[in-house]
Amino acid sequence: MTIAIYPGSFDPITNGHLDILKSGAEIFEKVIIAVSYNANKKGFLTIDERVRLIQESVKDFPNVEVDSFEGLTVEYAKKRGASVLLRGLRTSFDFEYEMQLSQTNNKLFNEIKTVFLITKPEYNFISSSCVREILLNKGDISGFVPEAVQVYLQELQL
Ligand code: ADP
């Protein structure tokens, strides 16, 4: 069974993330979407909030598990018996960064392979940071994030 880890900040999860996850779940027997965090860095949402919003957004995918981890992604992958890291690509800027990350991870653990999926054009412009910016300026984030995320975020008093 091929287990893939889909690591990221997911602060918050967006429709672009979800689209990559859906495709990954069609390719691999199991996908673990894992929020990576650094206890010293404060994000926008807490880790628990991010995990819970992901859980609500993926509840219809039977072969997807939601988790979080601190530290090196490759160490987490080893611990979970995963041989694939799943990542999404939007632009050539993503590519430059992701290529280095993939080569670094492969140097640290040569059994890990990164599989990249290209985002659909309708999700190309979506990022967690633009969602946060719209939200802070009281804009409408529907169409950017899954419904459960939208409801939760628009109720936050920012
Ligand atoms: P990180 O901090 O690890 O980059 P992110 O949550 O920003 O975490 O992104 C996780 C992964 O999802 C990355 O591979 C990123 O390129 C990808 N991603 C982010 N937004 C989109 C999108 N709109 N479409 C496809 N992939 C995306």
Please describe what this structure looks like.
With 158 residues, this protein is an alpha/beta fold. It has helices spanning 15-27, 47-57, 73-80, 92-108, 128-136, 147-155; strands at residues 3-8, 30-37, 64-70, 84-89, 113-118. A five-stranded parallel β-sheet has the order 3-2-1-4-5, with helices on both faces. Strand 2 (30-37), helix 2 and strand 3 form a beta-alpha-beta unit. The longest helix has 17 residues, at 92-108. The structure holds adenosine-5'-diphosphate. Adenosine-5'-diphosphate is lined by residues 8-10, 14, 16-17, 20, 87-88, 90, 94, 119, 123, 126-128.
Strand order of the largest sheet: 3-2-1-4-5
Largest sheet: 5 strands, parallel
Oligomer: single chain
* Ligand identities: adenosine-5'-diphosphate
Number of strands: 5
Question: What structural class should be given to the helix and strand makeup?
Answer: alpha/beta
The portion of residues assigned to helices is 40-55%
Uncertain spans: none
- N-to-C order of helices and strands: EHEHEHEHEHH
- Mean residue pLDDT: 96
Number of helical elements: 6
Q: How large, in whole angstroms, is the Cα Rg?
A: 15 Å
C-alpha geometry: globular
Distance between the termini: 44 Å
Report the sheet-strand fraction.
15-25%
Put the structure in a nutshell.
Helix content is 42%, strand content 21%. It has 158 residues and is of the alpha/beta class.
Task: Give a topology summary.
Layout: E1 3-8, H1 15-27, E2 30-37, H2 47-57, E3 64-70, H3 73-80, E4 84-89, H4 92-108, E5 113-118, H5 128-136, H6 147-155
Parallel strand pairs: 1-2, 1-4, 2-3, 4-5
This protein binds adenosine-5'-diphosphate (ADP).
